Input
Amino acid sequence: MKRKENRLFALLVKNYLLFTLVLLFLAGGVYWLWDRQFEQTLALADWDALLSDQALEQERYDALAKYLKGSTDGFAVLDENGAELYRAGAVPTTLTAGELACVSRYNSDEFVDAFPEANGGEVRYRVLRTRVREDGATEITGDMALDADFRVLSGEIVPGKTAYAPREFAILSGTYPARSTLYRYDFETGGGPRTLLICIGPLNEEALAGVSRSGWMVWLAALPLYAGALDFFIWRLARRLRPPLEKLRTALDAQARGQRVEVGDCGGVQELQRVGRSLDELSARLAESEREREQMDRERQQMIANISHDLKTPVTVIAGYVDALADGKIPPEEQGRYLAAIRSRTEALTGLINAFHEYSKVDHPQFSLQRREMDLCEYLREYLAGQYDAIELAGFALEVSIPEEPCPCSLDPFQMGRALDNLVGNALRYNRLGTVLTVRLELRPGEALLTLADNGEGIPPDRAAAIFDPFVVGSDARSGGGSGLGLSITRRLVELHGGTITLDNHPGQGAAFLIRLPLPQ
Output
C-alpha cells in the first residue's frame, strides 16, 4: 500500500510540474514576443537611460541620439544662458528664459495644473502646483491667480514673475507644444551648468491598435498548446483515480438517501482508502449529530420553560391587580398606584416579548442583513452622538477613541445599532453611577477591532463563560430587569456581519466586549 501512496504522490507532482512548466513557458514566450513587437512598434524613448549615460556629462551629445526611437520625441541641450548647444528629434524652437522657467522638472514629485475659473463674469485663470507625498497623498505647494492678460493677481509659481506671456501660460497648462509634453533636467558638465529640454511626443494610436490586434493573435496561438497540456494532465489523473472515486461516489449517494453504508476498503491507493474510512467516521458522526439534535430539542423545551417563568410573574401580578380593581377592593385614592404598577408590569412584559421575538428572528436561517458600504468611523460617531444624552442623564461618563481616517466597511446600520444598543444598555443597567464607558476603534490589517468597556463591577465569574447564551444575565438571575437575550442577539448580529465578539472580564474592575469586523482588502 505504501508503494501505491508513493505512486499517487509522484503522479500528482509530475503532472503538476509538467502543467506548470508548460504554462510558464507559454506565458514567457508569448510575453517576450509581444514585448518585442510592442517596443519595435511604439519605439518608446528610454529617458532614464539617457539621463544616466556618462556621455551627457561629457558633452558627447551625438552619442545620446540613439535613445530617440520615436519620431515624435526629441531633446535639446541649453547652456546657462538658454542658448541651444545641441538638438535631436522633434523639439520646439528655442525657449526664452521665462518660458524655460515654466517647464516642469523631469522626475519631480511636483506638477503644475492651470485652468480658467469664473469670477463674476471676469476671465481669470488659476494655477496650482501640487506635490505628491511619499504616502501617496497630495498637497498644494503653490497657488496663483491670473487675469485675462495673464498678469499675476495673487500667489506665485515662478519666483519674482508678475506676468506671463501667452506661450508661457500654455507651457504651464500643458497645451504647448500641442499633443506633446515638455520637461527639463539640470546637470553639470566641465563647461558649466546645462539644461536638457525633453519633449515627449504622443503615442502613435494606429501603431498601438496594431500591436493590440497582433497581441491577441499571439496569445490565441498558444491556446492549442495549453489545451493539449490540460488534456494530458486530466488523462493521467483520470486513469489512476477514476475507479476508486466511482466507488466512493456510490457510497456517498447511498449516504445522501439516508442509508447507513460501511464503505470499508474501496480499493485504489492508500489515500483513497483513508477517504473511505473517513466516510465511515462521517456516518458515525451523523448518528451522533442526531443525538445532539435531540439534546437541542430538550434545550429548546427548557428555553420555553424559562420564557414561561419570565412571563408568569408579570402576568400574575397584572391579573391580581386587575381582579382587585374589578372587585372594588381598592380605595379610589390607591387606584392610581395600582394602575401604575399594572403599567410597569405591562411594559416589562412587552419588553420580554419583544426580546424573545428579536431573538427568534435573528436566529432564523432565513434572516438576512440589509448591508451597504459605509464609513465605520463616521457610523460610530453618529451612533455615539445619538446615545450621548442618555448616557449623561444616566450619570455615566463616555470616553471615545475613533481614528480620523475613513474605514470602509459593509454594514447593516440598523442591525449593528441594535447590537450596540444591547451592549450600552447592559453597561448602564448593571453598573453604578459614575462609571466610565470607553468606546475605542482600532484599524488592523484585514479587520477593525471595536472595544466597548467600562470600569464598573465586571461580570461574576460563574456567568462570564456563558454570558452569550440565552437567558443568562450579568447579575443575579432574572432580577436585573433584563431578559437575558440581549447578548445572544448581539453575538448573532455580529456573526452575520462576518465578525466575532468576545468578553474580556475583570471582576471588580470592569468588563470589555471586543468586536472584530472584517474589512475589505
Remarks:
- Residues 372-518 form a domain with the Heat Shock Protein 90 fold (CATH 3.30.565.10).
- The CA atoms of residues 45 and 67 lie 6 Å apart.
- DSSP finds 13 helices and 16 strands in the chain.
- The two ends are 45 Å apart (CA to CA).
